Amino acid sequence: MVEQVGYGVTRFAPGDRVYGMPWFPRAAGAFADYLTAPARHLAPMPDGLGFTEAAALPLAGLTAWQILTEVAGVAAGQRVLVSGAAGGVGHLAVQIAKARGAHVIGTASPPKHEFVRALGADEVTDHRTGPPARDVDVVVQMFGGEHGLTALRALRPGGLLVSGQSAWTPGLHERAAELGVRAVGYLVDPDAAGLAALTDLVHKGQLSPHVSETFPLTEAERALNLLAEGHTTGKVVLTVTD
């Protein structure tokens, strides 16, 4: 919630409910009760979401939105593979791709398959059993290492893999060239217009963040350790006192 606005700010007023991902990838100092941010790094919170659910959207939601719409230009009828489809970015990417009319294939461990189907995925596979799909137009790749290289084999000729972990996938671009496909790395930007698009999807009932666990700020270390294990479903959120 906006506590105070600076000189020249016209987009918001004290008391407004806002959400965003300020300054990223620069540290925003958000493990705190208060922070300062440029007004255009924020947007009005979606109606019907509480602060906890809204906090789950900006980083993961903008990552998925920018990859699918700005980098890959996903359109109706395309086949989209989302790796880690039950994770923070993945579970939102599934919903956004479906909202754009894509045929969505998600990878997840077997206990999470029903969760991914409930998000709207048309197919769900276990990435540990081998190449997850064939003739895919776009791969949203959120795992690095060998998983990223394996996912290239799912693409049709000329298809595109967008990796949020390309720095941890040595040889990704070279292997893509060998297979006749494309691969790019991506890092999300603060984006008020993208936040407004996510809000619109929430209001249409096409996007809903899933919060699996919450921790108070005093337990931020526990939350980070849980995330580091790599087995969370949806988002983990730090909460602040009212």
UniProtKB/TrEMBL annotation:
PROSITE patterns with a match to the protein in the record: QOR_ZETA_CRYSTAL (PS01162)
Source organism (scientific name): Amycolatopsis methanolica 239
Lineage top rank: taxon: Bacteria
Keyword Transmembrane helix among record annotations: no
Protein name listed in UniProt: Alcohol dehydrogenase
Originating gene: qor
One GO MF term: oxidoreductase activity
Keywords: Oxidoreductase
Matches recorded under InterPro entries: ER (IPR020843), GroES-like_sf (IPR011032), NAD(P)-bd_dom_sf (IPR036291), Quin_OxRdtase/zeta-crystal_CS (IPR002364), YIM1/Zinc_Alcohol_DH_Fams (IPR050700)
Domain Enoyl reductase (ER) positions: 2-238
Gene3D superfamilies: Medium-chain alcohol dehydrogenases, catalytic domain, NAD(P)-binding Rossmann-like Domain
Pfam hit, one: ADH_zinc_N_2
